[in-house]
Amino acid sequence: MNHRTVFIGDSVTDSHRLEIPPYGDGYVQDIVASGRLTGDVINVGTSGHRLVDLVERWERDVIDAHPTRVSIAIGINDTWRRYDDDDPTTIEAFEANYRSVLARTLDATGAELVLCEPFLLPVEDAMHGWREDLDPKVDAVRRLAAEFGARFVAFDANFATLAGTMPMTELAGDGIHPTALGHRAMADLWLDTVLA
Length: 196
Hints:
globular; alpha/beta; 5 strands; Rossmann fold
C-alpha cells in the first residue's frame, strides 16, 4: 500500500509552497528532507486561512487526494483575527467545524489523523492577552485528538519549553511564523510523535 500524507493548515504549513514547490521551506519540507516519512507527501497549507476556510476546501484538497494520513495545523488565525480585525471565531464554532472535517475524513478515507495544536509565542506584551482566546482552542484540539484516536502534536507546549532556553524571537520572530530553527523544531516533534 502506498502511503500518502496530506498536510493542511495556514501560513505556517504553507511556508511559500507555491514559490518553492512542492513543499515550501518550512516544517513540511524539513519532514520530507529527514527521509523518515515514506510515501507521497502533499502540502495544501494556505496562508491566512482559518478553520472555516479549510472546511470549504476540504473535499477538494483532502478527500479527493485519497490520503492515508492527514495532518492538520490550524487555529492561530482564528485567534489573531479577533484581535487585529474584530472578527472572532467562537470556541463552539471552532470545535464543531473541526469535528465535522475529522468525521468526513474518517468516513471517506479512513486515514490516520494527526492534530497539531496551534501555538503562540508572546513576543509582544499585548499577545499575552491572546491566550484567553487561544487556550480553549488548544484544549479543543487535544479533546478532539482523544475523541478521534488521532496523534496529537504539541507544538504550543514544545515552543513554550524551548522558549525557556532561548529568546522567543529565535523560534518565531513575530511569535506566529516560525524561523528556520522553529520549523526544524516543529518537524522533529512531528516526526517523533507521529512515527513513534
